[in-house]
Amino acid sequence: MGSIWEIDFYSRPILDTNQKKVWEVLVCESPLDTNTKADSLFRYAQYCPSTQVNSGWLRTALQEAINQAGKAPLKIRFFRRQMNNMITKACQDLGIPAQPSRRTLILNQWLEQRMQEVYPQEAGYQEGTNPSVRLEKPLPQRLPDALEGQQWVFVSLTAEDLAEMPEWEIAFGEAFPLELAKVSPETRIPGVLIFSPRALPLAGWMSGLELAFLKVDTNQETRLLLETGVTESWILANIKKSQPLAEAKGFEEAKQKANGVHFLGVQSNPQAESFAGFWLLQEVNL
Prior knowledge:
By secondary structure, the protein is an alpha/beta fold. It has two domains: about 5-120, Nucleotidyltransferase, domain 5, CATH 3.30.420; about 140-280, no CATH class. The protein has six helices and 14 strands. The protein has helices at about 55-70, 85-95, 105-115, 160, 200-205, 240-255, and strands spanning about 5-15, 20-30, 45-50, 75-80, 100, 140, 150-160, 170-175, 190-195, 210-215, 225-230, 230-240, 260-265, 275-280. Strands 3-2-1-4-5 form a five-stranded mixed β-sheet, with helices on both faces. Helix 1 crosses helix 2. The radius of gyration is 20 Å and the shape is elongated.
């Protein structure tokens, strides 16, 4: 299987000699399973003068990253929607699909580390916060009728259990090393299992999205939402009965204790020993 990259191309809290913001491209490889070693993932960083901020410069930088990595990724994820046109154009010129996504866990951690340890050491550093990328969110959408699960349940596994995920039979899925989320092996990781006779088409459809995280929404009525892309949201279930309401509250509490880590699984029935889909997720604030 090929690799997936995460990139950020944006200004940094550094001024050049002309008092203009210095820009930077960060490229890092996405982990795909729980056994991936973080220090084995490809990374590339390059500063960009403010006078050269365009898709052509970014395309050249990405080509250099590809040369260093030895091969191009299958796709590139990015979380800054305001950079959509420039990033998409640079990636298209290289023949690589670009996807807005909140599934940029390695990139988020690397950017935070550079904010604390790298940029303050640069000449021209200007202390400040990382610009927010929060955007107005559309209303949650209903799942396509043909893809609605017949049954779902809140469950949990330990982090140690999830470390064995690469050995499971999974048709569609993705994960990351739990060491990145700073959870101990005995930590209880909450999750949701969806059961459907159309489990494989449902999991295949989900795999075409950029899965971000699950959340219990209580703004109007209690609903289980699947957040995807940068702003998209899907209604997995309406929660009305008292017991599922209590379990939903427990799910969010457990997720908080696990540093936002949780999972989503899709199976044909509760007795199935394989998964049509299984994704390890983490809710993080961008």
